[in-house]
TrEMBL record:
Signal peptide: none annotated. Its EC number is 3.1.3.41. InterPro entries: HAD-like_sf, HAD-SF_hydro_IIA, HAD_sf, PGP_euk. It comes from the Eukaryota. Pfam families: Hydrolase_6, Hydrolase_like. It catalyses: 4-nitrophenyl phosphate + H2O = 4-nitrophenol + phosphate + H(+). NCBIfam families: HAD-SF-IIA, PGP_euk. This is 4-nitrophenylphosphatase. It is an enzyme of class 3 (hydrolase).
Length: 309
């Protein structure tokens, strides 16, 4: 991993903020920890996004949170007074469905997908014509019994040829046990939405998708193909969808080993780390073999708005 050669620059005043904005035409925004913490919008999120729109900047949103579909995310943005189109949003659930369609080339109407995760994965699969099982099926909410589970008593579904595993806030032994049965079939592909070990919320840091997916990897002794940031397939999908000039793009995120790695390895013109999510200023400045340093960093995204007033 090539560490950013020059030390990251902290955006602390109007001149630095203005120079930063002038460098880029397109901003790829991570969501959790940057725009909001769960249902709590971070300060001036609406204002800074509206300002960038007024400046003619292109806004794209790239979240490793697979719990909602792209369409559902437009509603979350709207709840914060932000008007965003579905095509501007890329989730790790969508990236996983694209991987199933374009790389695994599973047959809609024939191949089914077992989902360990929430509705955002199944909804994206459905839009591509795939039937998915598991997910938020309420029969998985009851305590597990091998002799009574409806997912086992009649045997596994023979048309399931892929497992997609992602963040599931209703994780339980029933979901883990049935998912493992599918992963024990070597004909079933193992896809993980994202590697994030933790999930930032207001005042707390909770287990992330990666911590659940790695549990399934451990019990099945298999490695998942991860599709979210920093996977370059996800970036390439976005770059080609918008025909982007990467040199004029900046990735804005709160995690070094996903967002910053995604931007630097993707060859984007710049990266901005915000300290309102997972990372600290110390980690932003340290040189690590596991992830690159950001080009810029700031306490929180909305500070750009207040600085240039
Ligand atoms: O656990 C997860 O899935 C992630 O922490 C979370 O959803 C990350 O979302 P992002 O910061 O990429 O918007
Ligand atoms: Mg984040």
């Amino acid at each position: 991993m090539t560490a950013q050669k020059e030390a990251p620059v902290k955006i602390t005043n109007k001149d630095i903020a203005q120079e930063f904005l002038n460098r880029y035409d397109t901003f790829l925004f991570d969501c959790d920890g940057v725009l909001w913490l769960g249902s709590h919008a971070l300060p001036y999120t609406q204002e800074i996004l509206n300002l960038l729109k007024q400046l003619g900047k292109q806004l794209i949103f790239v979240t490793n949170n697979s719990t909602k579909s792209r369409l559902a995310y437009t509603k979350k943005f709207a709840s914060f007074g932000i008007d965003i189109k579905e095509e501007q949003i890329f989730t790790s659930g969508y990236a996983s469905a694209v991987y199933v369609r374009d790389f695994l080339k599973l047959q809609p109407g024939k191949d089914k997908v077992w989902v360990f995760g929430e509705s955002g994965i199944g909804e994206e699969l459905k839009l591509m014509g795939y039937e998915s099982l598991g997910g938020n099926d309420s029969r998985l909410d009851v305590p597990f019994s091998a002799s009574e589970s409806p997912f086992l008593v009649d045997g596994l579904d023979k048309d399931v040829n892929c497992v997609i595993a992602g963040l599931d806030t209703k994780v339980n032994y029933h979901r883990l046990a049935v998912t493992l049965q599918y992963l024990q079939k070597d004909t079933v592909h193992f896809v993980g939405t994202n590697v994030d070990s933790t999930f930032p919320q207001k005042g707390h840091t909770f287990p992330g998708a990666g911590s659940m997916i790695e549990s399934l990897a451990f019990s099945s002794n298999r490695r998942p193909s991860y599709c979210g940031k920093p996977n370059m397939n996800m970036l390439n999908t976005i770059v080609s969808a918008f025909n982007l000039d990467k040199s004029r793009c900046c990735m804005v995120g709160d995690r070094l080993n996903t967002d910053m790695k995604f931007g630097v390895e993707g060859g984007l013109g710049g990266t901005l780390l915000v300290l309102s999510g997972i990372e600290t200023e110390e980690r932003a400045l340290e040189i690590s073999a596991d992830y690159p340093r950001p080009k810029f960093y700031i306490d929180k995204l909305g500070d750009i708005y207040t600085m240039i007033q």
